Amino acid sequence: MQEISSTIMERCELLGNVSEEAGALTRPYGSRALHEANEIVSGWMRGAGMTMRQDEIGNLIGHYQGSGDKTLILGSHLDTVRDAGKYDGILGVMIAIACVQRLHDRGERLPFSIEVAAFADEEGLRFGTTFLGSSVYAGEFDEGSRNLRDWDGVTLREAVSAFGGDPDALKPIGRRVGDLLGYCEAHIEQGPVLEERDLPVGIVTAINGQSRVGLVFDGNAGHAGTVPMEGRQDALCAAAEFVLEVERAARAEPGSVATVGEIAARPGASNVIPGRTELSLDVRHPDDEVRERLRDHLKTRAEEIAASRRCDCEWQPGQETPAVSADPDLSALLARAVEDSGMAVHRLPSGAGHDAAQLAGFAPIAMLFVRCKGGISHNPAESVTQEDVGVAVEVMGRFLERVKEGATLP
Ligand SMILES: [Zn+2]
Hints:
Blueprint lengths: L1 H14 L16 H16 L3 E4 L5 E5 L6 E7 L12 H17 L6 E7 L12 H6 L18 H7 L17 E9 L4 H5 L3 E7 L1 E10 L3 E2 L11 H18 L4 E3 L3 E4 L5 E2 L2 E10 L2 H21 L3 E10 L2 E2 L2 H13 L6 E4 L4 H5 L5 E6 L15 H23 L2
Parallel strand pairs: 3-4, 3-5, 5-16, 6-15
Antiparallel strand pairs: 1-2, 2-4, 6-14, 6-16, 7-12, 7-13, 8-11, 9-12, 10-12
Helix pairs in contact: 1-3, 1-11, 3-11, 7-8, 9-11
This protein binds zinc ion.
């Protein structure tokens, strides 16, 4: 196992240098760096006994033939954010390849085929829309996205062509869903929970749903020196009270997180009472009903706070993303694999989005989180230990065994 995990660490290191920017890892969709990464990873997939193809958007798909006609998909993504860490996405692809490599080295064929998917765009760095790669793979591609433009004015249509694909063929692949046993993704946790619990891996229960809202508090601007404290309509004080209410309410609702990440006070001068504030709200929870209840509670509280300060409140609903549950049966097999490896099973939701969410409409999904140092991600300081990577490979190997037992049942 040590050899396998050290190969994975070396490969992550090597891919960490395949970048569009010197001295930082930045690998957007369709870039020269992603092309190079695809070339390198293709070689590793072939070396693990897989046949290869690159689909129209540029996802790399390795196929390890099994004896039955069903397929299990393993994977993650190879693109990165700007100035990224070496493991977000990449680690999951490397673990998937290592699992197939172990089978290949033993000359073992499973009663199902394994497809390793290395998605070409999850982060959405170049076109500002996430999951382009997995959306094409899962037949969820939004046709309107073809006209999105990057920072140089290049359209997605042009980028797809330049990357060797046919932009008019980004359609559902018409796969028979019954063929699929599921999709399992290993990914760094991007949070501190596993580290706090001293566990190398955890089982993802759901990918949190998300509500985004814009809020405006309208009060009355006035002279900071002449308007008495009594009777002020200070829009920033209303916003401040609301921000603390968001924190209090989210703490009172187990499993929820809520954040005000942006705030602007107008007119924005040191000697003027703020007449207007604009803020953002982000609410997440693995259960849509709970998230909606919390969101609605915060709307009521925003209106009450505004009224108590004789301000107006404008609530501007934004993006609503439903939660995606992991498949209980497939996740149970993954949990058994964790137990088989002699560890405690810890279940946790994912606060961040993942390719698995795109695949959920297409196949049962399960996710294995791998502990990462300090919960840091999207940052060059992203770090995992070789020991934890070894554990993840072992768990995934045992997971394949468990799937095999299920697949061979009459
Ligand atoms: Zn990722």
